[in-house]
Specification:
Number of helices: 7
Radius of gyration: 18 Å
Order of helices and strands: EEEEEEHEEEHEEEEEEHEHHEEHH
Helix content: 10-25%
Length: 322
């Protein structure tokens, strides 16, 4: 894409982003908090997602907005972060009023990072609550942060030849229209630069000096390995557009193309690849326009996720390989 202005995803009004992570044990959580409930959709292409409340995002369901979205480590254990996020939102009086109670609507997904650092330590309600407190600062950060702390890529032959990845963001503005992407890249495959098709991170050779083709290796193996179930790329699109829930589901589906443009292989049967899309309802547009921008933004955010990561737990990063 050309003729756009690059902005920080944290500059999109009406949304705040926070993180909490454990660098010692290698896991964490990132949370997106809209000032007001946000219309949200989702596209799940991986065959093994760890997710919460995504059924509410079906256009046929009555839900008319969410109060928070999280991207976490910890596999299915990481879904516990929702309890802390709900506590924070309840204290703020945000959620669906049911009698005398308030029920915050919190959706989200987790990556499998239990093989990085100490897999016995997983994100929990306390981490979720602290990530919400951090969101009040709304500081732009990428790399080994939040839910991306334990992310790795290129795991076709197991962790030995994998590389460190992390959390990435990218946002662009055209006129008054703003579209941003935030993503945690934890892929079995390699990550390629969207503009040149150059491999940025992924499966290392035996000497751990060069990146080799994951798709070729998959064909050579001729069978699925246990590591095929340890991979998930999860992310979200944030836009100031005004769209309904059906349209936001379409935006999420188009944004998922950003994964296909930069990760190979992707969306396998045991991956949990999931992309959300949420809007603040400020600028009129169409799902096709937002989706086109979203696919590009997601691809750029994926690139930033591996390019901003640092070496950790013995995994080489893009920075050190470069």
């Amino acid at each position: 894409m050309k003729n756009y202005q690059e902005i920080s995803i944290n500059d999109i009004k009406g949304i705040k982003i926070g993180h909490f992570d454990d660098a010692v044990n290698g896991t964490g959580v990132s949370v997106i908090l809209p000032d007001e409930k946000a219309i949200c959709g989702v596209d799940i292409r991986g065959g093994g997602p760890a997710s919460r409340e995504t059924v509410l995002l079906d256009p046929l369901k009555s839900n008319d907005g969410i109060n928070a979205l999280f991207l976490s480590g910890g596999s299915a254990y990481g879904l516990d972060v929702a309890g802390g996020i709900m506590k924070y939102l309840e204290e703020k009086g945000k959620g669906v009023k049911v009698g005398n109670a308030i029920v915050p609507i919190v959706v989200g997904s987790c990556i499998f990072d239990l093989g990085v650092g100490n897999g016995k330590v997983r994100p929990d309600g306390e981490m979720g609550y602290k990530a919400c407190l951090d969101a009040e600062k709304n500081l732009p950060r990428c790399g080994n942060i939040g839910g991306g702390m334990g992310a790795t890529v290129g795991k076709m032959k197991g962790d030995k030849y994998a590389m460190k990845s992390g959390l990435g963001t990218f946002a662009l503005k055209v006129g008054k229209l703003e579209v941003g992407a935030i993503v945690i890249v934890n892929a079995i495959g390699n990550v390629y630069e969207i503009d040149s098709n150059k491999p940025l991170a992924g499966l290392l050779d035996n000497k751990k000096e060069h990146i080799i083709d994951c798709e070729d290796e998959a064909v050579k193996l001729l069978q699925l390995m246990n590591t095929f179930g340890l991979n998930t790329t999860i992310g979200a699109i944030i836009t100031n557009a005004k769209l309904d829930k059906a349209s936001m589901n379409k935006v999420a589906a188009m944004a998922s193309n950003g994964l296909a443009r930069t990760i190979r292989p992707v969306n396998m049967s045991m991956d949990g690849d999931s992309v959300y899309a949420m809007c603040t309802g400020k600028v009129k547009s169409s799902a096709d326009v937002i989706g086109t921008m979203a696919s590009f933004a997601m691809a750029k955010a994926i690139n930033n996720a591996v390019m901003s990561a640092d070496d950790l737990f013995g995994y080489k990063s893009y920075k050190s390989l470069l």
